[in-house]
Every structure is written in structure tokens, then in C-alpha cells.
Amino acid sequence: MTTTEPPAVRVVPVRHYGRWLTALLVAGLAALFLRALLSSPNLEPGTVAHYLFQDYVLDGVVTTLWLTVLAMVLGTTGGILLAVLRLSDNPVLRGVSWTFIWVFRGTPLLVQIIFFGFLGALFPRLTLSVPFTGTVLFDRPTSVVVTGTVAAVLALSLNEMAYAAEVIRGGILAVDQGQTEAAAALGMGPTLTLRRVVLPQAMRVIIPPMGNETITMLKSTALVSIIAGRDLMTAVQSVYQNNYKVIPLLLVAAIWYLALVSLLSAGQWLVERRFGRGFARGGVR
Amino acid sequence: MTAMVRAEQVTKRFGAVEVLKGIDLTVAAGEVACLLGPSGSGKSTFLRCVNHLERIDGGQLAVDGELVGYRRQGDRLHELKAREVAVRRRDIGMVFQRFNLFPHLTALGNVTEAPVRVLRTPRERAREEALRLLERVGLADRAHNYPSQLSGGQQQRVAIARALAMRPKLMLFDEPTSALDPELVGEVLDVMKGLAADGMTMVVVTHEMGFAREVADQVAFLDDGVVVETGPPDEVLGRPRHERTRAFLDKVL
């Protein structure tokens, strides 16, 4: 080895002319679009600001939020059950689960929402009685029991169950067979194995698509405005149906949805980190 | 001496392939039995039958006097429910070729999981017991590491501690060192030698001839779904009586 310094080398970095060109192009297009937008007399930024924090809009935001949370909690719980049934040894239960998923994944959510909204047209009264005795335990008109809100929750969560079931089933199948065998060899029963060994590992695979499901759900709640679900979209609609300021009020809704989705994305990141423990990527060391 | 494992004419088929063609084997309590043989001879399948991870198709298999997977009532055999099978498995520890540690739990969590959830051992006592076991396999300082942070040899030693935490009366080892780098084999075999010295009944499927020669009380050579010959290691490994045993040993020694 010699001790002489290596000769100084002049490094010419790669010039990214393409980047400058695209930046210029995008900036130009954005400016044109912005000018077109601002030149419209119907944008009314003042109106947007006025309605953004009105009480009934905020009420709508709150309703949209709890509708999303409730539908996701019910949907995920039911989804786990359906997934377990579909993987069960019992052919009857497998069939039940398959049929449920087939129906609720196979028809549009909008149709399901309207259907539950008009359930009274199919069954005018909801009656629960003990068979062969004539004892009636419960009897009410359907429209009293299944209000717009109840119909919204029913439709959203039943629909979500079908999708969640498939996501969760995929997650369960992704867990290595050796894990189940190791649990079995330790004397753990099937339920305990599922709860303590399989599901916690399946979570890692389940969470990204379920985060997707949650975001889709938040936006799907807008569909319940068709049966007066009192959500954000319903609130905004009822305003612009009176004052015809459609664009500013749709902007109000869009701003809120975008804000809520951003919040959910952050939450998903936290949850993913939690269930990534013990795995090389993104785990807590 | 009582028999811990007694197999009589055990058969097992996967579809059209008969993997076990009538296995006869008796392992006495306190004994270490090593199962040797070429791959595909059925030794791992037989081991998995012992704790009912595979269901046998014929013959009889009993652990500590109780039939595996069945309950005798009069002259009938009743198949056990999943929950009853789970109860029987508590007394049989198993160590796998690929460790199969629970990746979402720390080493300590892996060892305490079954005692706490299955045996309802109070958490604090299970923890103390687990730390003692981890110390026994030389990993007291790794209790809070996740499996992904441990070497293969360390993972396999945690797996042994995990099986021991259920205080089994029988330990099954399915090629416990086959997935390890050569320099990590010794640390796992040392732990197993310690177990044998403490009088644990062990059935070990292995390719480690040195371990079999040194530790086993009984060596069984399997080929093509049957036990070709069995006896003390000096005899089977030193003076094999069967041509097939000799041919196998010539290849591996």
C-alpha cells in the first residue's frame, strides 16, 4: 500500500433537466386552473368559510364520524365471525357465510341503504313471538324501530361485514401453518389458538386493507343522505337545496371529508406500527 | 419399566401414498430414543402422530397408557374432540425443525403463553418459572427479545424452554438442528443432553449420529415406513444387522 493521496476527482452530478421541465409545466397548468377557478363567480370563498363551522354542519361531521366508527366496529366484529365460519370444518356454516358474503358483496351499497330505509314496505310490523303459544314478546311498526339512522347503520355494517370477512380470511390464511401446530402442541385449543396466536399475526396483513375499508366507509356514509341519515352530506344538501349555493357547500363537505380521511390515515400508521412488533420492518426495537 | 410410548403396527397414508406401513416401537419412561433414517422414511410423520398432529389410519398408539386421539369405552374406540385432544397434548412437549416461535411475542412471552392461558398458572409464577427455564437454556439475558432478534440456535433453545414450561412427561424433537447453521448446532444439542441427563423421556428425529451415539438409550432405524431395526446405539450404529441400515450408515458417517 502506498501512502500517496488519491488524485482529486471532479464529480459532475447528473443534471435532471426533465425535472425542471415538468416542474415548469405543472406550475403553468396549476396557475391556469387556479385562474379559471377564481374567475368563477360561484366559488364564493366567503360562503365556504361561513358554512364550514356552522352548527348543523358540525353536527353532520359528528354523525358521519360515529356512523363510520359504529359501522366499522360492527362490520369488523361480524367480519371476523364470517371469516371464521368460512374457514370452519362445518359445511353448513361455511355455506351460510358464503351466501351472506355473496349477497352483500354482490348488490350495490346504495340499493342496500334504500332497501333498509324502506324495510317497512316489505315488513310493515316487526313481531317477535314464541312459536305455537301465541305469546307476543315484541310488536312494533317497522318505521318506528328502523328509523333512518338505524337503517343507515344496518346497511353500512352488514355491507362492511361481507368485505371485512374476505380481508380477515386472507389475513388468517397468510399465517404460517407451523404457528397453529406449535400452539396445538402446547395444548392450546382452537379458539385460544385463533385469539392469541393466529389473529395477532393476521392483524399485520389485515390492517392496511382495513384502513382502506375505513376510509371507503367514511365516504360511503355520504350515501345515507338518500334516506335522510343526518350525516355531513345530508346537512350540506339540505342547505344548498334552500339557497342553491351548490359549489361552495360541496366544497365545505369535501374539506371536511379530506380532513377526516387525513386523520384516519395517521391513525392507521400508528396501528400498523403497533402490530408490526417482532417483525423486522417497522417494528419497535 | 413402564412404556411412555407404545406403537403397534401404526399405519398412516396421505392419499394413495402409505407413509407408515406398520411401525412397532416402545419407548420406556426416562429413555431417550433416536429415530434415524433417510428422508421420506416416515420418521417425522410418526413423531407427529405421537401427539396427534397427524391422525393414524391403523394400529395402536399409546402415550403413558392412554390411546392417542381415542377414548376406549367397552370394546369401542371413540374419536376425541378437538378440546380433548388439546388436553392430552399438554403433557407432550414438541420442538420443531423450524422453531415455530410466536413472532409477535418476546422470548419470555413465548414461554409464559401456554402456562398462563392453558394451565391458568398465575402470571407472576409463570414468569418466574419462564425466567428459570430461559436461564437453563442459557438465554436469561434474552428474555425480552423478539424471535426475529435471536439467532437460529437461540430461537430453538427458546422453543425448548417453551415446551418445558408445560412440564411435559415426554418431549418430541423433530429434526431440531436441521435448520441451523453448523456452528449453532452444538448449543442446541448441549441443552438436549442436559435434558436427557435429568431423566426426561425423549423421542428425537435427527441426523446427528454423534448425538445418537452419545445420548440415546435406543436407536431405531426407519426405512420406507417400517422400523428396520432397533436397539442400543452401539449395536445399531456399530454392528447393524440389516443391509439397509448398513447402506444408510455408509452414506452418512
UniProtKB/TrEMBL annotation, chain A:
Gene3D superfamilies attached to this UniProt entry: MetI-like
Keywords, ordered alphabetically: Amino-acid transport, Cell membrane, Membrane, Transmembrane, Transmembrane helix, Transport
Transmembrane regions listed in the UniProt entry: 20-38, 65-87, 99-123, 143-163, 246-271
Record GO biological process: amino acid transport
PROSITE patterns from the UniProt entry: ABC_TM1
GO cellular component, one term: ATP-binding cassette (ABC) transporter complex
SUPFAM superfamilies: MetI-like (SSF161098)
GO terms of molecular function: transmembrane transporter activity
Membrane topology reported for the UniProt record: Multi-pass membrane protein
Subcellular location: Cell membrane
Pfam families: BPD_transp_1 (PF00528)
Domain ABC transmembrane type-1: 61-265
Protein name: Polar amino acid transport system permease protein
TrEMBL record, chain B:
Keyword Phosphoprotein (UniProt): no
CDD domains: ABC_HisP_GlnQ
Gene3D superfamilies: P-loop containing nucleotide triphosphate hydrolases (3.40.50.300)
GO MF terms held by the record: ATP binding; ATP hydrolysis activity; ATPase-coupled polar amino acid-transporter activity
Protein keywords: ATP-binding, Nucleotide-binding, Transport
Domain of life: Bacteria
Catalytic activity: a polar amino acid(out) + ATP + H2O = a polar amino acid(in) + ADP + phosphate + H(+)
EC number: 7.4.2.1
ABC transporter domain sequence ranges: 5-249
Family: Belongs to the ABC transporter superfamily.
PANTHER family: AMINO ACID IMPORT ATP-BINDING PROTEIN, PHOSPHONATES IMPORT ATP-BINDING PROTEIN PHNC
Record-given protein name: ABC-type polar-amino-acid transporter
Species: Micromonospora humi
Taxonomic placement: Bacteria, Bacillati, Actinomycetota, Actinomycetes, Micromonosporales
